[in-house]
Specification:
It is a single chain. With 371 residues, the chain is an alpha+beta fold. Helices cover 36% and strands 28% of the residues. It has eleven helices and 13 strands. Strand 5, helix 4 (118-132) and strand 6 (137-142) form a beta-alpha-beta unit. It is globular, with a radius of gyration of 22 Å. The two termini are 30 Å apart. The model is unreliable at 365-371 (pLDDT under 50).
Length: 371
């Protein structure tokens, strides 16, 4: 049901409308894209805009393990002044037991509507929705100056920081890539590198156990919940990628006894062939100190170069505390592009903070200034 929203400092009347991709009108999709592209262009002035049709298909294909509820704040002409979303694990997720109390929130405001408490008004709706679902903790990510300032203004607790990197394939240190590949093959010739999009049935139990162990060994700041991968969740994710017409390539190293010792993930969207995302690289504890991370990273780059011929660059993220992987990235030619900061609040604390902000006099500035 649509909801009327009064925003301090603005004389316009706004309507808060649920954005359900499968049911959204073309006009609502246009409002969504106009807003998201304005925010994208603000923070990536030279970046290539995401393809609308591709983005529409991705948003219209929900993940059974994860739910995203989204709303659009529309003015009287149907233009988007802002958007808001609340995301959370479903009971199909293996992480549900540890994360069922957490809601991930996101608010985007048109640059011309900033500094008028638009985002804060939207938070009242998000917090009520989260409370109605039994959430008691909210989190938000910030990767730009406006978002960072807003989270700090809300007195969020900083719980994790990571760098986002980009490597243009033309600028990769290919001699070092070949050196790391050759050294790894020479020192441990019986350790094989294998790649698959669908985990072999014979390996899936061991793979999911090792994936869970490795991913929870990485630095995660003050995030306390473990991530769990099960054979059931792996199969759901594989089907989800296929439904979205995306490719998910997993690369592993296998020891002479058949056991998996390390892994990395590669995500590729054929509709946006210029970029590839490398999600995660990890080595099981007892196999560390053998250069496996370097070898796997090098094998991954060679795989991307040889398989995805239109790819221009590779992106990845690494925790600020993960000095060894940051050093590997730097040697290969990855350049840091931005920092993502995760904040957390007890829902009641944020609710009180939002109420205080809304009760204070609005700061009126000329359109486009400030966050």
């Amino acid at each position: 049901m649509d909801k009327k929203l009064t925003v301090s400092g603005l004389t316009e009347a706004f309507t808060l409308e649920a954005f359900i991709p499968a049911k959204a009108s073309d006009a609502l999709w246009t409002a969504h894209f106009t807003l998201s592209e304005a925010v994208f262009r603000e923070n990536n002035p030279k970046g290539r805009l995401p393809n609308r049709e591709t983005a529409r298909r991705l948003l219209s294909t929900p993940n059974p393990l994860y739910t995203v509820k989204k709303w659009m704040l529309l003015d009287g002409r149907g233009n988007a002044a802002a958007s808001a979303s609340l995301s959370y694990d479903t009971d199909l997720s293996p992480d549900y037991a540890s994360s069922r109390h957490i809601g991930q929130i996101h608010v985007a405001v048109d640059p011309a509507r900033r500094r008028r408490k638009v985002a804060t008004h939207l938070l009242t709706h998000l917090l009520q929705a989260a409370a109605d679902m039994g959430k008691d903790t909210v989190r938000a990510d910030a990767d730009n100056a406006a978002g960072l300032a807003f989270c700090k203004h809300l007195h969020g607790e900083m719980i994790h920081r990571e760098n986002r990197y980009r490597l243009h394939l033309d600028d990769a240190n290919w001699p070092l890539v070949e050196q790391w590949r050759a050294k790894g093959r020479s020192r441990f010739p019986q350790t094989r590198i294998e790649t698959f999009q669908e985990c072999p049935e014979r390996d899936i139990d061991e793979f999911c156990r090792i994936y869970t162990e490795i991913i929870n060994q990485r630095p995660t700041g003050e995030i306390r919940e473990d991530l769990v991968t099960t054979p059931e969740s792996r199969r759901i994710e594989e089907r989800h990628f296929r439904t979205r017409h995306m490719e998910w390539h997993t690369m592993i190293s296998r020891e002479p006894d058949g056991h998996i010792s390390a892994l990395t993930d590669i995500m590729y969207n054929p509709q946006e062939p210029h970029r590839v995302h490398q999600y995660f690289t990890g080595v099981l504890g007892k196999y560390r100190g053998r250069g496996l991370a370097k070898r796997l990273k090098a094998e991954m780059l060679s795989y991307i170069r040889d398989r995805f011929l239109e790819a221009e660059y590779v992106t990845t993220t690494t925790a600020m505390e993960n000095q060894p992987m940051r050093a590997i990235n730097k040697q290969l030619g990855f350049e840091p592009r931005k920092t993502l900061t995760m904040f957390q609040w007890a829902l009641e604390d944020m609710d009180r903070r939002v109420a205080r902000i809304l009760a204070a006099p609005a700061r009126v500035t000329s359109p486009g200034k400030g966050a």
